Amino acid sequence: MEINYTITIPVFIIVAALIVFLIRRNNTDKKKMEKEIIDSEIKPEKHNSGRV
Q1: Rounded average pLDDT over 26-47
Q2: Which keywords has UniProt assigned to this entry (predicted)?
């Protein structure tokens, strides 16, 4: 049984590229989601009165 390297190597390269793409996309989506959660939290009100 012989391995056809002309087909096997490009398939492995495509699979590896897909895995890298999905990992990077997951990381960027995770950072975006964390930022949205932090931004959606209720912030304390600022008091603009000049009194001390």
Answers
A1: 85
A2: Membrane, Transmembrane, Transmembrane helix
